[in-house]
Amino acid sequence: MQLMIILDGTVVTVALPTLQRDLGFSAAGLAWVMNSYLIAFAGLLLLAGRLGDLIGGKRVFVAGLGLFTAASLLCGIATSAEVLIAGRFLQGVGGALASAVILGMIVGLFPAPGEQARAMGIYSFTSASGASIGLILGGVITETIGWHWAFLINVPIGLLALLFAQRLLTRERGLGLGKGADVLRAALVAIVRMFRSRQMTVANVVVMLLFAAGFGFQFMTALYLQRVLGYDSLSTGLAFLPAPLMNALMSLSIAPRLTVRYGPRRMLLVGLALFALALLWLSQAPVDGSYVVNVAPVLAVMGAGVGVAIPAAIMLAMAAAAPSDAGLASGLNNTAQQAGAAVGTAVLATLAAATTSQRLSDGAGELLALRDGYSVAWIAAAGFVAAGLLLTIALIRRR
C-alpha cells in the first residue's frame, strides 16, 4: 500500500502536461490535481492514526485501501477536470486512512528487533525509492498507454492487497470508541503526551529533515539532469536507478542485520553522514558533468545513506510510543514525512531560483547560473542532514 501511494504521486506528476491537454485544465486548475490529494492526505493523517488505536489498525487500513482503490478507478475513467479532482480528493482520504496505521501495524506484527528491522527496511525502501521508480513508470505509462493508466494501474494492485490484508492481517480490538469519542481532542491530548518523550520528538524531527533533504534532492537533481545536462523525461527517470537499487541493497538486506548488531542510533548516524556526503559531492558537479563520474556514484551513495538512515530513525520514533498510541505515533511519523517533503522542496526550490536569478543578473550564462542555483540547494539540503546528525548525537541517548 505504501509503495502504491508513493508511486501514485510521482506517476501523476509526470502525466500532468498530458492531463492538462486532454481534460482542458487551466494552468491554475492543474495544481488542484495535486493539491486536492495533498489537502485530504495531510489533513487526516493524525486523526486516522488515532482512529486506528480506537477501533483497530486492520479496520482502518482495509477501509483506506478500499477507498483508495475505488477512487483510483474513478480517476482513471474521468472525462472532466471536476471528476478527476473529486477522485484525487477521495484518494487522499483513502491514502491517509491506510498509511497512517502502517507503522503501528508493523510494530505490532514484528515485535522482535531483527524482524522489526527487516520490516522497517522494506517500509523505508518503498517510501524512499518509490518516488524514483514512479518517475520511470510515469514516463513509460504516459508515453505508451496513456495517462488513464497512471490511475488504473492501482486497481488490480489494490484488489490484490485487499485480498492479502483480509487473509494475513489479524484484527485488533482497539481501545474502543468510548475511549475517544471526541477523536480530535483525544488525538491532540495523546500528541502532547507523546511529545514528552525526547526520543520520539527528536526522531520525528530527524525524519522530517531527512525527507526535506531527500525530496528536495530528487527535485533539484531531476532539474539539473534536464535543464543543464539536457536529458529528456524518460532518461531522467532511468538516471535515478542507482539510488533505488542501492537503497534496496541496504534497507532490505544489509541494514537490518547491522541494526540488530549495533542499534538504530549508530546506524542513523552512519546513514546521515553518507547522505550529507552525497549532497556535498553533487554540489560540485560541473555544467558539462558526466553521468558516470558526477551523478551515478552520488546517487548510489545517497541511496545507501537513505536506506540506512530512514528505517533507523523510524524505529527510534516508534520505540518511544506506548502500544496504545501506536496508531497515532504512526500517523505522526507520516505527517513528519509529508511536512518534510513539502517544506524541503519549497525551500530548496526557492533558494535555487533566487541564486540563479542573481547569477543571471551578474552576467553569468544560463547553464552556469542554473548549475549554481542547484548547487546552493544541494548544500542547503546537506545542512538539513547535518542538523539531523547533530540532533541525534546530542539528544538521542545511547542504548
Automatic annotation (TrEMBL):
GO cellular component: plasma membrane
Main location: membrane
Chain segments annotated as transmembrane: 25-48, 60-83, 89-110, 122-141, 147-165, 202-225, 237-255, 267-283, 295-318, 339-356, 376-396
Keyword annotations from UniProtKB, A to Z: Cell membrane, Membrane, Transmembrane, Transmembrane helix, Transport
Domain spans labelled Major facilitator superfamily (MFS) profile: 1-399
Listed Pfam families: MFS_1
Recorded topology in the membrane: Multi-pass membrane protein
InterPro entries recorded: MFS, MFS_dom, MFS_trans_sf
Location relative to the cell: Cell membrane
One GO MF term: transmembrane transporter activity
Superkingdom of origin: Bacteria
Coiled coil stretches, renumbered: none
PANTHER family associated with the record: BLR6921 PROTEIN (PTHR42718:SF46), MAJOR FACILITATOR SUPERFAMILY MULTIDRUG TRANSPORTER MFSC (PTHR42718)
Protein's name according to its UniProt entry: MFS transporter
